[in-house]
Amino acid sequence: MRTVGVEEELLLVDPETGEPRALSAAVLARAAQDDADQDVFEKELHDQMLEFATHPQSSMEALHAEIVRCRKEAARHAGEIGCTVAALATSPLPVSPAVGLNRRYQWMEDQYGIATREQLVLGCHVHVAVESDEEGVAVVDRLRPWLPVLRALSANSPFWQGKDTGYSSYRSRVWLRWPSAGPTEIFGSAERYHRLIADMVATGALLDEGMIYFDARVSPRYPTVELRVADVCLHSSTAVLIATLVRGLVETAAREWREGREPADHSVSLLRLADWQAARSGLTGELLHPATMRRMPAESVVRALLEHVEEALDGTGDLEQARVACEELLRDGNGARVQRELMERTGSLRDVVTECVRHTQG
């Protein structure tokens, strides 16, 4: 069974006002004093962000337990210095992001200017183990049309600088300002994949391979395929659903590769349109079906995804739980819908943030 790991980026906020707080260094210093959390939490691009990474897990129940524990520990460490954490993919309230003062982040600010300063967006990255780079690239080639569905399921960023954007995942629109971000062409082999990355780095527009921000990539650090398409999810249960579906997609793609089945040859232009549609409407309207690239109700496309990975999820014992979780998400809404319903009910973005703090910790 393939192992799965999750990285979540959390927003540091004032527990009373909901305003972002640039206190990541202080929170990390607190976490470093705790032996159990020394290697769990990491600094991110902006000082209003805190990242944690789970261990690789085979069991989704174990993965869920670790995500819940890390969120609670993040809140505990933040609380000790007067702030807390919210699983929000953008700040609903206006914010002036503070870029971290290490050499890498300063290079990025010098290179990309305002695009770096405005990148206060928070994602959920999922790593799934693969046996080789060749298998990993074959998986990346075959995942491409399904990634917008994950975008729609995880969408959790409707507000930006105090206003409703009209998007369910505005984070994804900001993320695409990076020159290496987004969907990719079919590579066909690990050799072609690595040659392209080397050529991209050689342009000087990127600092190194770590700045390859493809929607799905072979991790430069671990023997995994890494998907970076999801918003950080408001509820831990949604993060586990995304991880479950990603493992199912990776296993399904690997089987197709071993059986000699070619990847769908959709152009990057069509994939970008599918991704835009998912970011715009989330689960409230229509999505582009990964097979036909034509509009269908979101519910139908989500169920098509479940059907696509059914055999893989059945093999890991996750099928029924994934079905139930998808139906609940379609019924109750993703993070974007929850945020908008809170805004409609309270009329206050501060109340949206403070209520989402409670959702973050379950």
UniProtKB/TrEMBL annotation:
Question: What UniProt keywords are attached to this protein's entry?
Answer: ATP-binding, Ligase, Nucleotide-binding
The record's top EC class is: ligase
Q: What top-level branch of life does the organism fall under?
A: Bacteria
Q: Which SUPFAM superfamilies match?
A: Glutamine synthetase/guanido kinase
Molecular functions per Gene Ontology: ligase activity
One short Pfam name that applies is: GCS2
- Check the record and name the NCBIfam families matching this protein: gshA_cyan_rel, PRK13517.1-1
Homology family = Belongs to the glutamate--cysteine ligase type 2 family. YbdK subfamily.
Tell me the protein's name.
Putative glutamate--cysteine ligase 2
Source organism per entry reads Streptomyces dubilierae
